[in-house]
Specification:
3-stranded antiparallel β-sheet, 2 domains, two-stranded antiparallel sheet, mainly alpha, Cytochrome Bc1 Complex, Chain D, domain 2
Length: about 450
């Protein structure tokens, strides 16, 4: 065993680090606290007809104010349910992923979406408690709707899941789907409040005749287009996301189910570190590989920030904005990890371009952030946004406040050990993750182009 550890010490490594590595060993899998295998019974059983309807709505730009962006634009099947960008380009852009443009002239985007587009894998799991990076949509048994959201008491009732509650909000953002207040009625409504957007979007859907029989077939209580509300729209989208992005057939899942040959030796070493002395599973625990807590890992900041209306400066204080608890400053939801290798870049703002960079950041957040440069972000070219892109990054005081809140402290690892953990993270990719049952439709009922 000593020889195995010694071989992981890199030439030229400072003696103090080499000594630390001698104390970081792995343990047999039998001694690890591994999660139980996922099964389909762990997930909400959505209606198939609603899921098929939701597929079309998810890809249909009729849900946006200017009819030029769909949910799928930032959560596309071809991009692992995300968009491949650090900060998304929402309403006003064109194209997909790293090829997406930011518009031109009067139609160019006003700012980037302040946060990275989160992946959608397995969000139909029955135990999902929070959505969005700051958890601003949450399950809440004490509320009439069953959910706590920015809409408060104006949230419509009858939502079938937290996924449906989450789906309500991108269409209310001027930078994401609504458009600006001087561009269309939805944008005007969004400036007044989210609850004023939803009836207008539902009316746009009702205006597409081809949708009427589909809603009638999918929902027993819908007898005509007049019965279609935003609740049916987002319930169908939730059924689609919860069904089509359900995936747990990775090598790791096979290993949990008893197939000892499903993972390579490097993947097993990474697993042993992840669930053992590497400490990763202190946060990435349970069947979804997240304890759904909120942690401050000190990522470098850039872009416009998701700034609170009362805040005198541009920044993103994370969970604090939802709880007003200073202990939550700069903390974000611990993400689920299945299919994580498909959804680069990483972090609430996509600051880390690769899995290796993200793992290394966890091991020494302060050094990682202080050495980080803006060219590591994956951003759509938009010269007019350059001053905004670097605004928060150039604020040394804000950087120090972020670094002071870091609450992860993991043991140092060698290059080989980091590589093994990255191999383990790749073992979380499902065999059928890139071949979903429904996927992208060729056309949508509105006749609008499909990204």
């Amino acid at each position: 065993m000593f020889d195995q550890i010694r071989n992981r010490i890199r030439p030229g490594m400072p003696p103090v680090l080499a000594c630390l590595f001698l104390g970081l060993t792995t343990m047999p899998a039998a001694a690890l606290d591994l999660p139980d295998p996922l099964t389909d019974d762990d997930f909400i059983a959505f209606d198939q007809a609603q899921a098929e309807l939701g597929q079309l709505l998810f890809y249909d730009k009729v849900l946006s104010g200017n009819r030029n962006i769909a949910c799928a634009t930032c959560h596309h099947h071809a991009l692992g349910s995300a968009d491949g960008l650090s900060l998304s380009v929402g309403e006003g852009g064109a194209g997909l992923g790293t090829l997406r443009t930011a518009g031109s002239g009067s139609d160019r985007i006003k700012q980037r979406v302040p946060r990275n587009a989160p992946a959608l894998w397995n969000l139909g799991h029955r135990d999902v408690k929070f959505l969005f990076h700051d958890g601003r949509v949450a399950t809440a048994d004490g509320y009439p709707s069953g959910f706590l959201t920015p809409a408060g008491s104006r949230l419509p009732e009858g939502l079938n899941s937290i996924l449906a509650a989450q789906a309500l909000f991108p269409m209310t953002s001027g930078d994401e789907m609504a458009g600006q207040a001087d561009e269309n009625p939805v944008g005007v409504a969004a400036a007044r409040g989210a609850h004023e957007v939803w009836p207008l979007v539902a009316e746009q859907v009702r205006g597409v005749e081809a949708y009427e029989p589909m809603f009638i077939a999918a929902f027993d209580h819908v007898q005509s287009r007049d019965d279609i509300t935003i609740v049916e729209v987002v319930n169908a989208i939730a059924a689609f996301i919860g069904t089509d992005f359900r995936n747990h057939d990775s090598p790791f899942d096979a290993y949990l189910a008893g197939d000892d040959t499903a993972m390579s030796d490097a993947e097993k070493r990474g697993m042993e570190l992840f669930f053992g002395e590497g400490g990763c599973s202190e946060c990435h625990a349970g069947p979804m590989l997240s304890d759904q807590s909120f942690r401050a890992i000190g990522l470098p900041v850039f872009g416009p920030g998701r700034t609170r209306p009362s805040d005198p400066m541009a920044r993103d204080v994370g969970r604090l904005a939802e709880t007003d608890d200073l202990d939550d400053a700069y903390s974000f939801r611990v993400p689920f990890l299945r299919n994580i290798a498909l959804t680069a870049p990483y972090g609430h703002n996509g600051a880390m371009p690769t899995l290796e960079a993200m793992v290394r950041h966890h091991l020494d957040p302060k050094a990682s952030t202080l050495q980080w440069t803006l060219d590591q972000a994956v951003l759509t070219k938009a010269d007019w946004l350059a001053p905004i892109d670097g605004l928060i990054l150039g604020d040394a005081s804000e950087t120090q406040r972020i670094l002071a809140r870091i609450d992860v402290d993991l043991p140092l690892m060698s290059y080989a050990q980091v590589g093994d953990i990255v191999e383990f993270l790749h073992s979380l990719t499902g065999k059928t993750a890139t071949n979903r049952p429904l996927g992208r439709p060729d056309t949508v009922p509105s006749g609008l182009p499909v990204d």
